[in-house]
Amino acid sequence: GVWNTFLQWGVPHFLTVGLGLTGLIGLLRGTETQRRRGAVLLTGFLGSLLVALTGARLFGHYFIPAAAFAAWCAAEGAVLTAAQLRTAELRWRSHIGIAGVVIVLAGLWIPISRFHGGAWDARLQAATQNAQIREKLSDLTTAVQTLTRPEEKIWIWGFAPELYVRARRSCSTRFINCNYLVGLVPWVNAAPGIDTSDWIIPGSWTLLQEDLTQHPPVAILDASEADYQFWGKYPLEGNEALVRWIQRHYVDVGTFDGFRMYLKHDAAEREGVAASR
């Protein structure tokens, strides 16, 4: 994971590392103001790298702050190198500039082709073959937009916060994902055999009850039936009080993209939707 992250953010590594070290050394050996700037950059880089490594999951986006500090250090190195080239009487100075442009372009092309080439090839193939890429959860998104009004709010039992954006509906509770309620840490304790109850945030169920009582959603979407984002291990039926509350106030209107959808009685009557079971 560390190596892949290094390739992702540092390719070609000689450019980032070389200029970064040049910049840091130059700052730390410069004036008082430059030394302070160098200390801030070095501390920020090491601190953000430590934070990214602490979780031990090593996702690439965790290293974005460290990449930013590395880029600032590399920029300092580029400025220092350019200043030295301007003052030095080198016979081949123009050629060095051209070589530098080539290296920079290579440094941009390699990570783009390595990490984004697959997505580009897929889009190119779809365009040349007149293929259409189906949007994720399109049936569910359409159902939510059809059966609820723009000003009405919904709630998702699961880990699918992107659906609020796709459907253009706000969440009626503070829990835009319900991992806090079940103790799920995605990609860490998501395996079906792992009991996550020890990771449940204390008091979270009380807060959920308050939110649902004060701001009941017009629609509730159950991601567990679709086993979406590890939520197959958290069936709604495992929470008797919540199930009873839903049964009293909502109508089961069927499944869309594997998600079961519950609609408030008054909304179901308004839309002319009958219970599916």
Pick out its properties:
four-stranded mixed beta sheet; elongated; 277 residues; 8% strand; alpha+beta
Secondary structure: elements and pairs:
Elements: H1 2-10, H2 13-28, H3 32-54, H4 64-87, H5 93-128, H6 138-147, E1 154-157, H7 162-167, H8 179-182, H9 204-214, E2 219-222, H10 240-249, E3 250-256, E4 259-264, H11 265-271
Parallel strand pairs: 1-2
Antiparallel strand pairs: 2-4, 3-4
Helix pairs in contact: 1-2, 2-3, 2-4, 3-4
Structure description:
The protein is an alpha+beta fold and 277 residues long. Helices cover 56% and strands 8% of the residues. The chain is built from 11 helices and 4 strands, in the order ααααααβαααβαββα. The chain has helices at 2-10, 13-28, 32-54, 64-87, 93-128, 138-147, 162-167, 179-182, 204-214, 240-249, 265-271, and strands spanning 154-157, 219-222, 250-256, 259-264. It has a 4-stranded mixed β-sheet with strand order 1-2-4-3. Helix 1 packs across helix 2, helix 2 packs across helix 3 and helix 2 crosses helix 4 (64-87). The mean pLDDT is 86.
| C-alpha termini separation | 47 Å
Oligomer: single chain
Order of helices and strands: HHHHHHEHHHEHEEH
| Overall mean pLDDT | 86
Q: What kind of sheet is the major sheet?
A: 4 strands, mixed
Strands side by side in the biggest sheet: 1-2-4-3
Strand fraction: 5-15%
Uncertain stretches of 5 or more adjacent residues: none
Helix/strand structural class: alpha+beta
- Give the total of beta strands: 4
How large is the count of helical segments?
11
Identify the overall geometry.
elongated
Gyration radius, rounded: 27 Å
Helix content: 55-70%
